[in-house]
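To illustrate the input format used throughout this study, we show a single complete record. The first block contains the structure-token representation of the backbone; no residue identities are included at this stage. The design step must infer an amino acid for every position from geometry alone.
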């Protein structure tokens, strides 16, 4: 899989030839890692070319009293839907799905292990899960959360 590299501000990298692209190889699923991150950060209706594409954060997760199990399933399904350019599956398996939800802080933490044709990835929106991961390749995707007063947005920083 070949994927245009994005910089720390999520802008396309250009002007450096082949260095502007991520390409997967055995043991180095960099392009799939960025594709998963992009997939989880794209909100439903956000992309003008396909408004049916994206994570239904506002439609099915935040403020909907959705169970943790359903939210887990939404995220895992979003990860599993990733395809290679030839249309074949990029994701072989999603395992070790683990999540917690605190009703007092309204914080949701998610982690899973993703098997790809090029290697394993640990996907997490939590620094704790990311630093305790047993895998050499770790992707951290911070999903949107609200602070206690329900007016302060938290979640702009995304760490890989």
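Output of the design step:
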């Amino acid at each position: 899989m070949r994927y245009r590299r994005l910089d720390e501000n999520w802008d396309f990298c250009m002007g450096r030839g082949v260095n502007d692209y991520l390409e997967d190889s055995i043991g180095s699923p960099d392009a799939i890692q960025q594709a998963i991150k992009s997939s989880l950060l794209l909100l439903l209706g956000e992309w003008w070319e396909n408004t049916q594409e994206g994570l239904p954060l506002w439609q099915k997760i935040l403020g909907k009293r959705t169970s943790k199990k359903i939210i887990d399933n939404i995220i895992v399904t979003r990860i599993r839907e990733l395809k290679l350019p030839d249309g074949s599956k990029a994701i072989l398996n999603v395992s070790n799905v683990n999540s917690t939800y605190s009703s007092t802080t309204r914080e949701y933490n998610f982690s899973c292990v993703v098997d790809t044709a090029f290697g394993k990835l640990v996907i997490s929106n939590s620094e704790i899960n990311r630093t305790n991961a047993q895998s050499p390749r770790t992707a951290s995707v911070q999903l949107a959360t609200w602070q206690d007063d329900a007016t302060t947005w938290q979640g702009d920083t995304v760490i890989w």
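Structural context for interpreting the output: Residues 29-154 form a domain with the Nuclear Transport Factor 2; Chain: A, fold (CATH 3.10.450). The first strand starts at residue 2 and ends at 4.
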